[in-house]
Structure formats: structure tokens, C-alpha cells
Amino acid sequence: MTAELVRGQNHPLSQARLEIRVSAGTPIVAGATLGDEQGRIHGVEWVAHPGAPTLPGLEVSRQAAADHRLAVDLDAMPEAVHRVSVLLALPIGAAGPTRFGAVPTPFVAVTGLDGTEVASYTIDGLEAESAVVALELYRRQGAWKVRAIGQGYAGGLADLLTDQGLPQAHQLADGINEAVAQGMARSVPAPPPRTDGDRSRQTAAPALGPDQGGPAPQSAPGPVSPQPPSPYGTQTPGGPGQSAAQPDSYDIQAPGVPGRPAPQPSYQGGTGAGDPAQPSTPTSGGPIDYSHPRRQNAAPPPPPTAPPAQPGQPAQPVAGDATGWSMDERLYNQVWGMFEDLARTTAAYRSAVDFADSRMEKELDQVLSDPRSRIGGQGDAAREAAQAKHGQLVNQARAALDRDIAQLTAEAEVVEPALPPAYASWDNPVWHGYRVPMEIPMALRLGDLHLPESEGLRIPMLVRLPLERGLWIDSGRGGSLDGSFTDSHDLRRLAMETAVAHAARLLAVYPAGEFTVHVIDPAGSGAQPLAPLVQTGVLAAPPAVGAAGVTETLTRLTERVDLVQMAVRGGAPDSLPPGFDTSEQLLIVNDFPHGFDDRAVNQLRYLADEGPAVGVHLMVVADREEAAGYGPLLDPLWRSLLRLTPVPDDHLADPWVGHAWTYEPSFVPPGSQVLQQVLTQVAAARTKYQ
Amino acid sequence: MTKGQAISLQKNDGGSLTAVRMGLGWQAAPRRGLFGSRTREVDLDASAVLFADKQPVDVVFFRHLVSDDGSVRHTGDNLVGGVGQGGDDEAILVDLARIPVHIDQIVFTVNSFTGQTFQEVQNAFCRLVDETNGEELARYTLAGGGSYTAQIMAKVHRAGAGWQMTALGTPANGRTFQDLMPAILPHL
């Protein structure tokens, strides 16, 4: 039976060999100090920390991690030890948070070796503290007990150790931080922060090709790719009592006591009774903060406001005039809002024209069937009247459409120049000021979309990152809208160039070292288009050639998917081997199915299905006709990939009305060196990163 | 407002209405069964049918929440009704300025999806509200209205450059708006 402790509460321990599990949702340092009867540490040798992880009867981990398991053997404790304090601290020097108030509420549990929970404690109420004594195990009349402490220190480990009477507290704290910093360098970084799915609007639904699942409206799938590790990742399944709401840190405090500072720890641990080294953490006496600590709780900067509209005129458009927590998100929502508006206003227009057509047809039929219309000019008059009615309605509809298009065009004219590189086309000057980013953007522009009624108005096609499906760059002749590309060789080269431009874009918008590109080019036919990637040195390895190269690359990536899946399913994403490359992987396959045997085809299908969830993505450059020999076996593969074309093609449907939109990839302007320049910077940043 | 009465949606100050909302509210039926555990849920649905010259062009209901042109929006299906009185449990918002030029009438209907007649439903009402100022333009009490499962509530139609609303309040029977089509057509 688990005892859920509150601060200051104690619980007897019947076992001597225990494990202390810590879940924090963010990498933290875990350690333990030994104290005598007065709670004093005798010296640095009485502190277990990442730099000195093992003491008699005690072992802690060597590095910062979101989950910890500390092994404790109370029988092995020296006689002089009467107290074992388990401490947690935020790593110093990393780019991460510096106060516990900014991270998910840590949770600690004392378990037996078989995993049964004995006692648990959620350390809530922390604010500016960067180190905390979570629990202490203490001897009382020959028996060991556990007590929930939750004593935080704004001054970090140094203050914590000083409080326990260690003379060399500052030096040791520095030493611990140093050891952690070294450990961090080789540990698996925490998954990147992601925008919460619940903030994404319906507009986040991906555009679907009509042949790829139909135009039915898609509900917004939040990014389903790798979940951040559960803060309870190491908890025993079915461990009772830990409701999902627990990581939410809300200060339990009587409402109606306005102006009361944030609660001080009601229990003062060890020698700290009445100690002036109390963490001075009271924030301004605000109301109860129910916000989830992982959510951004500062108000986002206000969106730019449009100047007041002239009477009778639509408001002047402003870039970023949409909801969102960042400019990135606001622009994303604005672009999707424009996409929806254009889809709907065009739907209104088409519906009106259809109606006008059918009405005129009916009226003309009536004229024909009416015997009176044969007399004199009556028939002609009726015919003209029907046509005039038709023309009038169509003109009205067109006027409404033109009004909306003009407004959207004006909006596009202010939005396009404001777009960040990830959302911008290659001819946008923002690419000339390109710098390797520090964060993954919300989305990536894969090209432009437009409708025949509004040729001039191009909507950026933004897809969420990380990619949720692989890409298929269609090199088949069916991909050519006007049939102008009769030379299949040209089309293939163009398809590969398009693939390279997409891959370059992905490489450029990820932070250094967080995106890795592999290429399979069985016959070497893609050498020329691949040159920008190969020459700048941004590829993980030279393009794999021949059947052996295909097999080797596919096997490596398949194994990677298996490994990450196992780790994620096992709830231990931190358990990947040290040095494991955690970047997102993209595999470009040229000339599929050339060089593929049945096994390789199956591996590719596996990667398409299972890869995106664990950060392995596909970009297949292929002519579907050439794979026709596999029959329906490959249909699921094509369906699972988002089809893009190297030439304008109207195959993408919007998620609201299902119009067929003409897709056009973003081409690098002829003669422009922007691609090379960007890739050179990416390569330089990669070298520095490694 | 009484059945068949037409009101212009021109405002007194000469400006015309730009947005109207049809609201529908009801209360879940009392629980039944020995232990009060067996629920009798009541699911009423609000729908709006867009007509161009008596031809249905688009429908907004719980399976198609936004008209293709975006001018008519349903706030979402409510399967059980409200626990209290007052608020709208389902609402349909109409942006009159954005309705496509060929649409000349919009008919609002209410159906009992779970089949109870309005006699059995507590505190059911539907109303039309001027969305810009919250003023109620029309209100019907459905409860106790007879053993019907549907009502054709009102229509909003073009009149000159603006719009006019006519209260219909015709009882009918049917599970969804499709069943009501024969009953709607005479009102167009």
C-alpha cells in the first residue's frame, strides 16, 4: 500500500534495500547526503553525486536525467549515519530552466526492489528554488523511516549543502555541477519542446490528396510523434494513487487570502529549524496559480493590431494578425486562416456559378419546349433574358470573389515578407540573412497552393514539423499538368532537384545536428541534382549505391526504428545507448524501386509506417508506374506518403471543402546561390556541433 | 412573435443585421430506473438549410458544421442538453454579409434525434438572436408543444438589399433535417 506523503509526514520502512525513483519530466541532478544524529554531513565523502556516485549502501546516477533510480541499502550504512537526504537540483550551465517553478512538479517514490511502492511524494509549491531536499530516510530507535521534506533552496546546491553543515559546500557544489555538465554532453538530450496539440486549430490538419485518403475534413491531429517521456515513466504499471492531475502544481492555499505570499515550506528539515537560510522565494502575493508549470504561463506578446479600418473598407492587413503564443505560431495560423478563407470564398463562387448554369439550362429548356417561343421573337427574348439573368448572377458572384481575393492578396503582400525562413519561399530575401536556428520551427513550407480562379494568389503550403508522413516526389509523367514534360529524363532530374531543395530546407530549419539526411541512389543517376548536398558535406554519409548500399542503409534505419520504439514503449527513452544520435533522420530514396528486392521493399514500407513516430522520415523519388510490378502490395506505401510533384499539379485537396489545389514546389531562383550558401552554413554548424 | 409573422432584419437606425444566431436549449429528462441510474438522454439537433431558388444547396448540421462557403457555422453537437435553464445548448451562427449571392433563403429546423416528442422534453426552446447586440428576435417554447419530433422554426430570406426573417413554427416529424424536406418546401 502506497502512502502518499505530504510535506513533513513520515512513514515506516520495513525493508532495508530500497529504490528511490524520481520523475521530473526535465533533466535534473539527483544525489544524496549522509548525516549524523544532528543531521550534519561530516565531509565531502558523505555526499553521493554524479561526480562520486557510489557510497556504501547508496548509489546515484552519473548524469542529469528526467527519471532517476537511486539504490539504497540501509543495512550497509555506516553506524554513524542516521540520516540520508535525497536531493534534487537543476543542472547549472545548461540552457535549461533555472528554477523548479518553471519545470513540471518533481515526484519521488520509495519502492521495494520488486517495484512495489512504499511511499511517494509530489514536491509541489516550489518556485525560485534550484535545489531541493526531497526526502530523508532517518533512523529512529533502530528502525528506518522516510519523511517528505520538500525543502527548497534558491541558492542551489551550495546553500543546500551549507545548510547541512558541510564546510566545503561551495567547492563541492561546483564540482557536482562540473560533473553534471560533462555528463550532459554525452547524454540523450530531452525531447525538444513542442507546441501543445490542444492549441492547434482545426486548420492544422494536413492537406490531403484526393487519392490519398479523400477530402474529408481532418480533425487536428496534434503532433503525435515522440511523446515526451512521461514524468511517471518509471512508475510501476498500475501503481496506485498517482492521478494524472498530479504533475499540475497548484498551490493548495486557502482562497480568499489575497496578498499572501507563495507558501513557505511548512516543515524545516534537519538543522534548518528556524534557519535564516530559508529560501526567499515569495513571489508577489498573487492569487492561486493553477497553471501547469510546463505550459507557458507568461502572457504572449500582444499580436500586432491592425489600424482601425476606414468606414466601409476592410481593415488593413497586418502580418501576424492571428492567435498564437509566438510570432511563428501566429503567422502559421494566419496562413492557414488565409488558406481556409480562400477555399471558402471560392466555394461560394463555384456554388453560385453552378447554380446560375443549371438555372439557365432549365430556363432554356423551357423556352425550347414552349410552343409560344416559336412565334416571333419571343423565344429569342426569353433566351436572352435567361442568359442575362445568368450573367448577372455570375457577375455578382465574381464581384464578391474579387473583393475577397483583393483582401487576401493584400494580406499575402504583408505576410510573405514577414515570414521566417522555414515559411518563406527560396526567393524571399530572408534566406540571404539565414542563420542556423536554435529551435525547431512549428512548420515548414513545402511549396505554394493556388486555385484557377485566383492564379495570382499563392498560399504557402505549411506542414507541421516534425513531419507526420513521408513525402513522395512523383517523377512520373502523370505528374505533369500540361504534359509539357514529355522527356521522362528531364522530369526525373527535376524531381530529384525538388527533393534536394526540400531536404535542404529541412536541414536548414533544424538546429545544428538535429537533422540527418541519408541518401539511397542505387544507380547513381541522382548524382548531379545531389551535388549541392554532397559537395557542402551536409550528408551523414555519401549516397548509398548498388543493391548492397540499399540493403545496408535500410537495415540500419529499420534497426534504429526498432530500438527507439522499444525504448519509448518500455517507458525508458533515457535508456538509449550513450552516444546515440537522437536527431531526426530523413532518407531520400532515388529511383525507387530500382535496386530494391522484396525484403528492401518491406523495410521501406515499415519505415513509412513506423518511422515518423520515432523521427525517421522518408522522401521517395519515384514513378509509380515503374513499381507497378509489385501490384497492390505497394498501394499502402503510396497512400502513406504525401505526394508532391516537381511541376505544378492540381492534386492536393484542402481539408474544408475539398477543392483541387494546384501545388507548385518552391524553386530556387535560376542562377541563385542561396541553396549553396544556406547548406554551407548548415555544414559549418554541423562541424562545430560535432 | 407569432407564427407567420415577418420581421425585417433592418435595424431601427437603418443599418441592417449582419449576424444572427439560432439558439436551441433544452434540459435532460429526469433520470429513471430504480436507482435513478438509468438515464434518458435527449438529443435535440439544430440545422440550417441553405436554398437557392428552392433548391437546397448546402446544409449545416451536426455532421457538417460549417457551410462550404463559411458563412453559416454550427457551434457543435450537444448530445444531452443543458443541466439548467437558460443558455443555448446548440447554436448556429449566420454571417449574413458572407452568404453567397445565389442563396436566397435559410431555413432553421430543430429535430429530436433520440425520438422523444417535444412533450417529453423539459424546458426546450429555440430562438433567433441578433448576434451583434444579443437582442432576441424570436423565441419559441418547444416543450409541451405536442407530440412532434421536429419543428421548422423560421426562415431568413433576402428582401431587397437586406434580409428578412419569417417565423414559421411549423411542427413536423423526423430524425434529421432530411426527413423534414417535404415539410420545408411549402414554406419557401
Automatic annotation (TrEMBL), chain A:
Residues 185-322, 366-390 are annotated as: Disordered. It comes from the Bacteria. Residues 218-231, 299-311 have a biased composition (Pro residues). Residues 64-162 form the TerD domain. InterPro entries: P-loop_NTPase, Stress/Tellurium_Resist, TerD. Belongs to the CAPAB/TerDEXZ family. This is Export associated protein. It comes from Streptomyces cyaneochromogenes.
